[in-house]
Every structure is written in C-alpha cells, then in structure tokens.
Amino acid sequence: MTRRLFIPLLVLTAAMFAYAPIVIAQAPFESTMLLVQKIFYFHLPSWLVMFSAIAVCGIASAVYLFKADIRADRIAVSAAEIAVVFGAFGFVTGMLWGRKAWGVWWQWDARLTTALLLELILLAYLVLRRYGGPGSEKLAAGVALFGMADSAIVYKSVDWWRTVHPTTNVMTSLGRTSPEMYGAMLYCSVAFLMLFALLMIVRVGLENRRAELDQLFLAIEEQ
Amino acid sequence: MSMMRRLVALAFVLSMLVARLVAQPPATIEEFVPIDQLPPSEQLPGGVFVVIAYGFIWIAAMAYLGSIWRRLGRVQNEIETLRQRAETSQR
What we know:
The structure holds two protein chains of two kinds. By secondary structure, chain A is mostly helical. Chain A has helices at 2-26, 40-67, 70-101, 110-131, 136-160, 170-177, 179-222. Chain A is 83% helix and 0% strand. In chain A, helix 2 crosses helix 5, helix 2 (40-67) runs parallel beside helix 7 and helix 3 packs antiparallel against helix 4 (110-131). The radius of gyration of chain A is 20 Å and the shape is globular. The model of chain A has no long low-confidence stretch (mean pLDDT 89). By secondary structure, chain B is mainly alpha-helical. Chain B has a domain at 48-91. Chain B has two helices and no strands. Chain B is flat. The N and C termini of chain B lie far apart (81 Å). The interface between A and B is medium-sized, with 34 and 28 residues.
C-alpha cells in the first residue's frame, strides 16, 4: 500500500515544492515587515510538521508502552528524528526572521524558551535511543510522552504569557484579513505535511530493514 | 606571596574594568527613527534573510533525505552480506 503510494506522493510533493516559490512570490507583502515576512510561509509549516511528528511520536510511544507493539516503537523513533529536523528548520527560519523583525537573533521569552526545551527533550529521546543500551526503548517512550505534553505548552505559551511572538489567533485573523496570504500559507503547509508523510515512509522503512538485519544476526548466531 | 596576591587582585580588578568597558551597551535611541534614516549597519536586507531561510531548508531537507538513503543502503549491504554468509555456512 505504502509502496504504491510512494511514487505519486513523491512526484506531487516535488511539484508542490517547485511551485511554492511562485505561490509565495504572488502572496501580498505584509505592510510593516515587507519581504522578510515571506519567511513565514516556510517557518509556520516547519513547526506544523514538528508538532505533527511529536503527536505521532507520542501516540506511537504510548501504544508501545501499553501494548508492547514493536511496530509502534519504529514509528515513534522515526517521527522523533523528523521532529528534531523540522524543529531545527523552525528555529533557523525564526531566528532569521526575528533578527530582521525584532532586531535580535534570540529572545528568552516563553514561546522560544519552551520550544527550545521541546527540541532538547526530543534530542534526549534520540540520545537515549542511540546510547541507552538494552531497555532504553521504554525509557525513551516515557520521554516522548513528556515531549508531547510539552508541545501543548509550547503552542499555548503565546496566549498564557506575554511574549514578543505573535499569538495563536494570527491564523484565524489571517483568513479574514488576507485570504491570499492565508491561501499561500495553506499551500505550503500541505506541501510540508506531504514531505513529512514521505519522510515517514522512508524512515520507517529504514527501521524495518534494521529489524530484519537484527533477525538475520540472531538466526546466524543460532545456527 | 603578598606581592603575588596584590598582583592577582590588580589583574582581577583590571580585567573587570576591561570587561565593563567592553560590555557597555550601545547608546539607546530615545526617539522614533524612520527605517530609511537608520545607520547602514542597522539596515538589514530582508531579501538576503529570505534567501538564506529558504536555501537552508532546501539544502537541509535534501541532506536529511540523503542521510536516510545512505543508512538504508548500508543496512541493505549488511543484510546481503549476512544472507551470503548464511548460505555458505549451510553448504
């Protein structure tokens, strides 16, 4: 099923990413930030993918913890790695945008600090998986649940505390104030989510192959 | 010994003074300054930031995809080697 879906998804995602600069260029300029605001069309979808990946990682970790389903663990570790990568995209684009819009590369405000903690939790998950030794899968699954809980705090941080970062109602107001900007943002979000699906297919495939390799090792040792 | 202590104390005070002077915050702007009247060092080109942001995402995404592909190839090679080894041991 996933193999049949892979090629059409790959072609469609590549086409959407190739056309994305045109969509972004055609979107209207924001009146105060002008050109640099265009980073928004890759910045927000990066975080959207990161949050989606954390949700997948957290749910799969819970399934692994409570049902001991090894396939869920493979999905969780794949999603965690992708979440770290897209989190890095979000940080780099955000810092570039912040340098121009706020005059600083970094601000220790609630949104940025909680997001950094979330990235560190996910890095801890990966380090635990890599160097934790036997049994680290269950410990890492627990860490993933903390990461999922933190993602809700990161999302709501801009509403709960006073920060320099825009609040969560930006998206709803954007739909009313500038449907063209909203359309471009939706287009990029769909493209990023498709890229996420593609990366998940390839990354889970890698975990399946690793499991196959472990089985082969065991079979040879038994001979 | 006391001379040594005095010298260390003097070096400490001097280093603190130097650090204080170096860490002086820039003079704050008291009033509104239009963006086109800012000094050139403060006028950041937005286009460069946009290009860096998009370029970084494209390159990093490709590099990540490449890293998965490389790892997949390595695992595949190991599987092939093990299969061959298993076949030879069976003979």
